[in-house]
Amino acid sequence: MSLQGQSKGVDLPALQEHLCGLWSRKEQEELRQFLKSSFTQMQEPLAGLLGFLEGCLTVQRGKSSTLHQFILSEFIRWRTSNPQASLNGLREEERLRLQKKALGLLTDSHPGYMDPLLEIYQLSSLKRPVLLEHVDFLHDCCCFKEALMFSVKVELQKDLDMEKMCVPLILLDKLSLAELYVRDLPDLQQRLVSLLDSWCEPNFNMQALLSQYPNVVLSKHQMDQIQPKLLSKHVFRLMEKFCIDPGLCSNSVYKRKLDSLRFLMYKTFGEKSMSEENWRDHVQAMIEGNTELQIQLVQLLVKHCSLQTAAQWAAHYNLPRNRLPLGVWDKIQSLSRKKQLEMCFVSGPPESWTPLQSDMQKYYQLPLPRENVLFVESLDEVELCREAVLKPGCVVGIDMEWRAGFGTVSSQRVALIQLAVQERVFLLDLCAHAISHHSTTVNFIRALLSDKNILKLGYGMSGDLRSLVSTWPELREEPMKMEGVLDLLHVHQELQRCWLGNKGCRSVEVSEGPAEKGLSLLVQQILGKPLNKTEQLSNWERRPLRTSQLRYAATDAYCLLDVYLILSRDPKAFGLPEDLRSIPSAQLAKSREEKKPKEKNKQSKRREARQKASEPHSMDDCLKMTSEYKGPTITPPELRVVCDNMLQGLGRFLRCLGVDVKMLENTDDHKVAAELARAEGRVILTAGQPYQTLRSQVGEGRCLTLDCSEKARDQAVHVLRHFHVHLTPADIFSRCQACNCNEYLKLSREDMTRMMKERGLLQDIVSKRDDCEPQDETQAEYNSCRPPEGPEFTPHCRWAPRTALDPQTFRFPSGAEVQLETVPPGLLPRIPVYFICTGCGKVFWEGTHFDRVLSQFQEVLHVREDAATKA
């Protein structure tokens, strides 16, 4: 019996045609009334509804609002006043037939289509074999999403194969649906996380997995998502979300720890911003009991440190001889037993509260004696701290420290809270059992943070507060209202957007240490010197804390008071509002959210700003002077400049274009720029307030100020145009970006291969590829696809003779050694010629970056003239 026959007196085909006509004409009110009237006239409205849906299911499918959705919503509305339209009064066979018909409409349906049918036709009441058969049918039709959603809504997860249901969707980059599938089911959650972790195994075969799902077709983006780096992040997130034991995810934990180990090696032996004592603390805790990580450590020590240190660690962990890098076992045999066991753990002399003289010259110093820094570890001392801090009108600098969780899932727990007031700093030891979770301590911090009469200063306080809530769960159960808090991070963000915020641009690493950032950069900009961050990643849970840790912790909190004091005295001088607390706290997040969608608009605004020379900001005279340069056209090597330490990014771009550039180090005073300019006849490039001081120390037209809100590339174009620089393709990469030298030695592939073999750099290509650090941006893949009519890479530079390189030491007369370790072994078969800087030993080769630079500076590049010159 047809549905049409069951709805006596109703001509369904005619009704369906009429419905489609009304819908296409967007006559929704008339359509609504027509449906209401039709449902009322039907003797069996449930059968009639299915007839309507069958007739219009293929009409306008895929649109945000479809006819069948409209019909369903109107039926539900009509049924509220007609409750008799249900399955309850029907015979069992009729009821079952309608339910199966409704099931058939769920294939590849709209998201909003499933729930109404499930509710109207009570589909969850069907027998489980029927439901499971329908899930299989959906899956066989490649309706993976619909199959999963249906099984979740009728609670079939325990009767289905989790991998069969979830893997196709994970491959299609829909992991969130798999998470929905295992919600509130701990066993399935564990299996899902273990599945993802198994894909992080080094020997995981992606093609073997795909062969099990031949109907799943992946795009390039979806293929890129199935890689250990991204998968391990999901594993850690889900481990925390589902409270999964990390021991069940050995592959992801191993990868995270190995990445952390490489990071620690870089921080200690590359960047040199972490002490070896801190490094040892973290490394020992990380690799304990894991032979594979211990072997990786020894390999990294051979590369970054020394053979002796690697041998000492290998001896300490008694690693098997056949797993050790070349030379390590022989070194172990040559060491005395005492040397083998000490691992260079030589205790130094007791630390003095007064830092080294070199550190005092380079870094901001805490202006307090040791006795004014109080370590709080008892309730009596907490009460003393409370009395000193909880005073109306008091200004308090707040910071917190916790141990970095390398390779762990647990939330970071605060180990130390620093509270700085004028002339004193209190360090609350949250590792001391007497006070760590005592209500006196918790209530004290709660009262401090919620007191609007006490100004609390911090930098990036959201991270501190997250860790504090993880430490004290009662703060989550009874949330506190934050009052009287000034986050200097938002002040810093505003400062860097202002023309008057001196040193507004973050510098780029070109010298010994890393570029300053965060609070250290703010302290450098306002107080003249950065913070010493050597102890930042130390073990803050170890007791007793070292003197250097105590000094660092106190300094981090006290510097907030000094920064605030300077800014609050004359905020207008920095382009800030009178009331620093009026700067919105959501400003940073908002700017980040708007950055990407507004990038094009932002660039167009910058172009307009550069064109409007008649609209200066607050430094009209200097902008006027910079637009009056009347010099002749010059070549890039003839332009000799010195970049202030806030324009190091610009300096690197100009070197890339062949300009002779000296760059100040992060710790250099601005007067160094003036001294270099006078001694070597250079032009000073600067930004912000230092311009006024520097221009008075050099000749007219020898100091140019730039907008530090511009990108380095745009600044470089501005400089080239200002000084009428005639840029040709031969100028690009004619000078070393690292050291400014313009002399290269050209080496063939055969010579490079021989030198690397002599240094033992080609013995273990696989491990070298794994350990290879990111290369300089000039080291790109060889571009064999450049069109023949395009410019060739023939830099205008000085070429050193082959005899300039010592064949034994691989050193140049400058003392620089060829940096062979930066050349990936896999590059040798593809790159025929290498260029080595004689000033620093850096190795370059022709790659796609040359073409990118050509494209970036096309507007100021003279290609035809350059080609004519070469001809």
UniProtKB/TrEMBL annotation:
Residues 585-619 are annotated as: Disordered. Residues 590-602, 610-619 have a biased composition (Basic and acidic residues). It comes from the Eukaryota. InterPro entries: 3'-5'_exonuclease_dom (IPR002562), Exonuclease_MUT-7-like (IPR052408), Mut7-C_RNAse_dom (IPR002782), RNaseH-like_sf (IPR012337), RNaseH_sf (IPR036397). One of its GO terms (molecular function) is 3'-5' exonuclease activity. GO terms for biological process: nucleobase-containing compound metabolic process. Residues 373-572 form the 3'-5' exonuclease domain. This is Exonuclease 3'-5' domain containing 3.
